[in-house]
Amino acid sequence: MNSIQKSDPGSHPKSTINLDLAWFFLIPLTIVNYVFAEKMQNLEILTPLVLSVATLKVIMIGSEFMELRRSATWMLWLMAIFFIGLNLSLILLLAR
Amino acid sequence: VNSSEPQITLSEPDPNLSKFKAKIDNLPGGPLIWGVFWMEMLTFAFFFWVFAWLSRSEQAVFQSGQALLHPSQATFNTLVLLTGSWMVARAVASSRQNQAVRPWLLGTGVSGVLFIAVKIWEYQQVYSHGISLSTNTFWFFYLFLTLLHNAHVALGVGFMFYLAWKYKTTKLLEEQIHTLEAAAIYWHLVDVIWVILFPLIYFTR
Q1: Beta-carbon neighbour count of residue B26 at 10 Å?
Q2: pTM of the shown model
Q3: In angstroms, rounded to a whole number, what is the distance separating the alpha carbons of residues B120 and B89?
Q4: Chain B residue with Cα closest to A88
Q5: Does residue A24 sit in helix, strand or coil?
Q6: Which of A30, A42, B8, B99 has its CA 20 to 30 A from that of A13?
Q7: Do A19 and B185 touch (CB under 8 A)?
């Protein structure tokens, strides 16, 4: 039953607009992040900023590219919790 | 029927267990690729923590190493991998709509080849400074982590070209779509690892 649902075109949106929007958002986000990282003099803010942007990107990839928001929300939550935890632990380690 | 023989009664399956199994089975790509995903993620996360810990213990070594890297090329590579991730997601979407997946898979494979090519250029720059795995802690972790990641990209490229060669028709079978979903999750894994590795190596100081 589940395997039939998984690949049933009816259970997935026919439009790929969410995929395209996610891509259009991730590309400028990466460029802006690079420009900020290169120009920023305040190193205490730099690390939390770049790692938080990375976490946001991972959650967007999970939500839109991996389709977890539509097919397995619990896995998207697990990913979000794991990557936010990883991000925080790295920020704390780098702030020592 | 001999009434004295012991009766075997099958107990009802645990509803909670069945519910959990249904949740696992319903994951895109199936449970196996998700096992791989979390094993790889935890392994890389361990190395990220070690990298972050050592970067504070040997701050001068790490900062002098970072000064020799090329963040603009790494940013370009991030854009390339994100585009590859978008293309493989489009391939999965196309397969469900009975549209051609081949151009999207070839595009994803090419993005991986481009990523590796840029990385090889960066390795050449690094080696021109006489740097190797044994130079210091920063260069050991830089080379180890990026080479390990590149090996994953190369494997992903192989998957993409193989599937592009195999899936010539627009109407894919249920099993083929399942395999494509698993390959896409693997590619997203490679992308996600790089998304964290990139700022950690190039920008955190």
Answers
A1: 17
A2: 0.89
A3: 27
A4: B49
A5: helix
A6: A30
A7: no
B15 or B85, higher pLDDT: B85
How many angstroms separate the CA atoms of B63 and B55, rounded?
8
Q: Please answer yes or no on whether B55 and A94 come within 8 Å at the CB atom.
A: yes
Tell me the shortest Cα–Cα distance from A2 to chain B, in angstroms: 6
The two tokens of residue B49 are: 């923590």
Write out residues 173-192 of B within 8 Å (CB-CB) of A.
174, 177-178, 181, 184-185, 188, 191-192
Under DSSP, the state recorded for B130 is T
CB B142 within 8 A of CB B68: no
Tens of pLDDT, residues A22-36: 999 999 999 999 999
Q: State how far residue A25 is from chain B, nearest Cα, in angstroms.
A: 11
Contact by Cβ (8 Å): B195, A47: no
* Cα–Cα distance, A26 to A64 (Å, whole number): 11
Q: Which residues of chain A are under the pLDDT cut of 50?
A: 1-10
Query: Is the four-CA dihedral B120, B126, B129, B130 of positive or negative sign?
Result: negative
Q: What is the mean pLDDT of residues B58-80?
A: 93
Q: What is the ipTM of this complex?
A: 0.87
